[in-house]
Design brief:
CATH class: Alpha Beta
CATH architecture: Alpha-Beta Complex
Largest sheet: 5 strands, antiparallel
Order of helices and strands: EEEEHEHHH
Number of strands: 5
Number of domains: 1
Strand content: 15-25%
Number of helices: 4
Length: 125
């Protein structure tokens, strides 16, 4: 698929690891903002770099939020860290569309919070 078929705020994904998908949000510049473990967090990439030679799948909109506001919400997270269980590509696109976290996301955050409370403050040396 070519990137001129997509509009700002669209949710797109590519397949990786056989059955998994990596998600991102299309911008008005024709780029994709995604939360990537490979890049260490939320980055903006060219459409071609995001696709990495793979087929790109367009998903139904996650909300009624217009493309401008979805992109704005996505841009506010540029540079934020990646975390498989608390802040991954799926969490990112849901947040950009102002969707509530899934029960699995809430459970992971709760477990991490309880662990931090029981483990006390972390010291940096």
């Amino acid at each position: 698929m070519q990137n001129d078929l997509f509009t700002s705020g669209d949710v797109v994904s590519i397949r990786f690891g056989g059955v998994l998908r990596h998600y991102g949000v299309v911008t008005s510049r024709g780029t994709v903002i995604c939360n990537s473990r490979l890049h260490g967090g939320v980055v903006e990439q060219s459409f071609e770099a995001f696709a990495a030679g793979r087929d790109v799948r367009l998903h139904d909109r996650y909300s009624d939020l217009d493309g401008y506001h979805v992109e704005l919400r996505a841009r506010r997270h540029l540079g934020k860290d990646y975390d498989l269980f608390g802040s991954n590509c799926g969490h990112f696109v849901r947040h950009a569309h102002r969707r509530k976290p899934t029960p699995m996301q809430v459970a992971a955050a709760t477990v991490r919070t309880v662990g931090d409370m029981l483990g006390g403050p972390k010291r940096r040396y």
